[in-house]
Amino acid sequence: MRPVPACSRHAQAVHVPAERTAVDTFKALSRGTKVVVVAGPLLFFSLFFDWQALEIDYGAAGVVEQRLDGWDRWGLLLGLLTAAVVTIVVLRRLTEVELPEDVPWDSVTLGLGLGAFAVAVLKSLTDEGSTWVSYGFVALAGVLALGTYLSWVEGRREGSASVPQRSRRVSSAA
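Predicted structure:
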């Protein structure tokens, strides 16, 4: 049995798969899709953190600060909108699932993303005792909406590139 040189042992151990890795798949995504895939789950999980700090006065017993997470009625709506945006984007861009082509998915995700941002703003404005962290989460909802807008713009560019342009010649009436 011949000894195998060290450099060839290393070369044998390194196996480059023929398939794309997860990093390659992520790098191949459009900028808007990347923003949605990152900001969406972060926004969803932000609802488990403190969005409110309420002071409750018990009279002679003292004052207590009660911290509340984001899961109230506005938070539930925000969570559902965020989950819907991320689900649609992941199904369209990262899987082989065939969705109906007659539905304008980019416009749907844009509407859901803008809705999530609006709900986050309403939640922070109407919640009593909103913390400064909640305003950061509103900014994160804005980033999600920006990602859906970027995807919508990219989809419109792709759509306009596939539509043939008509020539604008003036025909004579004679």
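Summary: The beta strands are 50-57, 63-69.
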